[in-house]
Amino acid sequence: MVDTSQTFAIRVRDLVVGFGRQIVLDHLSLDVRRGEILGLVGASGGGKSVLMRTIIGLIPRRSGEIEVMGEPIGATHDRSTRSLASQWGILFQQGALFSSLTVRQNIQFPLRENLVLSQQLMDEIATAKLEMVGLRPQDGDKYPAELSGGMTKRVALARALALDPPILFLDEPTSGLDPIAAGDFDALIKTLQRTLGLTVFMVTHDLASLTTVCDRVAALADGKIVAIGPMRELLQSEHPWVRAYFHGKRSQMLQPQMR
Ligand SMILES: Nc1ncnc2c1ncn2[C@@H]1O[C@H](COP(=O)(O)OP(=O)(O)OP(=O)(O)O)[C@@H](O)[C@H]1O
To answer: What SUPFAM superfamilies does UniProt report for this protein, alphabetically (predicted)?
Structure first.
């Protein structure tokens, strides 16, 4: 039998997730390859965040299988899921830094929670992570309220990378950033993928991010992945929602080269 655990960072099979009578994910299957940046698009309220949260064990599923780096994820948020948490770093939509902690303390938070390290080593790690995301060591003394939107995202990214996870989950990483800051952030993600060999699972509505940094794009509609492949293949998809998304008036206005 072929050992797929070396090929795929994430495998989702026949996943069903719902709340009460609402079925959000309906027998969804998806493979994320090791080392790729996968972009996930879908209608607002279509279940992108629910998929991401189910993969990391925050939302229980009704049925289906999930594997991360070859390890099965439990159906509920149990001990085995918690021990897998060092496999991923997460950047939630709002950045969600602790406002009463400095930037350095925010970055060190996952280290304190998971490891026993000397303060000197934690300070060295925080400085290295700040540099990795393009911030200066002295930015470590600032509080979240003193940061710009772009800096906040970078600090949240540094915190997500604190434990050197092989997988990064990003929920709309460029939302709220101006186009220049968004482009810089995209470039940073690409650099981290290349230099660290990271697998990146990115929920985004940002057409520029999809076009410039994603190796593949997956489209979620009607609770399933209805198209997946490089952006040029998605643009050829005949699925009605995918066509409407990429070839609708607004997309064409933003990306004239897509026509
Ligand atoms: N904890 C929850 N309890 C009940 N319903 C929920 C919960 N979380 C999400 N939902 C519902 O699941 C559906 C999918 O939500 P989700 O947040 O995944 O959408 P999304 O695709 O990420 O949307 P957006 O692009 O607007 O962020 C929505 O109808 C939402 O109301």
So the answer is: P-loop containing nucleoside triphosphate hydrolases
Question: CATH classification of 4-258, choosing from 3.30.360.10, 3.30.2350.10, 3.40.50.300, 3.40.190.10?
Answer: 3.40.50.300
Residues near 131 by Cβ (< 8 Å), separated by ≥ 6?
137
Q: Exposed, middle or buried: residue 22 (CB in 10 Å: 0-12, 13-18, 19+)?
A: exposed
> Does the CB atom of residue 223 touch ligand 1 within 6 A?
no
| Position with higher pLDDT, 1 vs 164 | 164
20 CA: nearest ligand 1 atom:
4
Give the distance (Å) from ligand 1 centre to CA of residue 242. 20
**Residue 187 has which token pair?**
């470039």
- Closest Cα to atom 14, ligand 1: which residue? 47
- Split at pLDDT 50, 70, 90, the class of 259 is very low
Domain regions of the chain by residue span = 4-258
Write down the ipTM of this complex: 0.97
The 8-class DSSP code of residue 21 comes to: T
Q: Is the CB of 48 under 6 A from ligand 1?
A: yes
